[in-house]
Write a structure and sequence with these properties.
The protein is mainly α. Helix content is 70%, strand content 0%.
Length: 253
């Protein structure tokens, strides 16, 4: 198949329809977009449609491109992703992009759920009890990242040297990382994509690329995730992410 045929195939799988021919105000641009994303990028690498769509909605949530986010939440459902996995992917963004932007993404996601007659709220996915948040977070954080954050920010004044690393452990790794719906391997891979899409977080991209390897992802899967995200976040941010994690990813583990 050439890329035009591949575009038709992938577009049907994801959206249940046909790609643009001459419809709309800018059919030439849409043909370029669709043939590149759905005829080329989607066919390179080992990741399946489900993981690729989780990657896509992650980048779209980071970028706050909400019309496209709604389209791809629909695609997530079309390729068989559970609503819980979709929701958890969006929820996980909060620690990185902040709560207001995440609420925007949740609102867009829920519009699609309602349109598809998915009852809200979805099932409760919490597993970390209030009194054991720190211990549950440490159980995930320590095997992958050790005590790096606490050591790095020991210079902070007064209570901040203890509280800020604790917030990371309890919010990122306990409140979100222990929730049902996504496994640790998937969460770490999506975190790499999230940080790459943000731009300016190259130190964290490198750290989380190594964390993603430790969580069970291969270097090829991480490269594939960044490459799949490239059309949605732009080439400079994708290249920055690849360059800063080169030492880790080039080992081919």
């Amino acid at each position: 198949m050439d890329r035009i045929e591949r575009t038709k195939e992938k577009f049907k799988e994801l959206f249940g329809g046909e790609p643009t021919k001459n419809e709309g105000t800018d059919p030439e641009f849409m043909r370029i977009l669709q043939r590149f994303i759905f005829g080329e990028v989607c066919y390179v690498g080992s990741l399946d449609n489900r993981m690729r769509e989780l990657i896509t909605i992650t980048v779209l949530a980071v970028n706050q491109t909400l019309p496209q986010l709604k389209a791809h939440v629909g695609a997530c459902l079309n390729v068989g992703l559970a609503p819980l996995a979709i929701r958890e992917t969006i929820y996980q963004c909060a620690s990185f992009i902040g709560f207001p932007k995440t609420l925007n993404a949740i609102s867009a996601m829920n519009e699609v759920f309602v349109a598809n007659e998915i009852a809200l709220p979805l099932e409760n996915a919490e597993t970390a009890a209030e009194e054991t948040r720190y211990e549950r977070g440490q159980a995930i954080q320590s095997p992958i990242y050790g005590n790096e954050i606490a050591e790095r920010y020991a210079w902070l004044p007064d209570d901040f040297s203890a509280e800020i690393p604790k917030w990371l452990t309890e919010l990122c790794f306990a409140d979100f990382g222990t929730r049902k719906g996504l496994d640790e391997k998937t969460r770490e891979l999506l975190t790499v994509v999230m940080l790459a899409a943000m731009g300016g977080a190259e130190v964290q991209v490198r750290s989380h690329a190594l964390g993603a390897i430790k969580a069970g992802n291969t270097a090829e899967e991480i490269v594939c995730a960044i490459a799949h995200a490239l059309p949605y976040m732009g080439m400079p941010r994708a290249f920055n992410a690849l360059n800063c994690a080169k030492e880790i990813l080039s080992k081919g583990e």
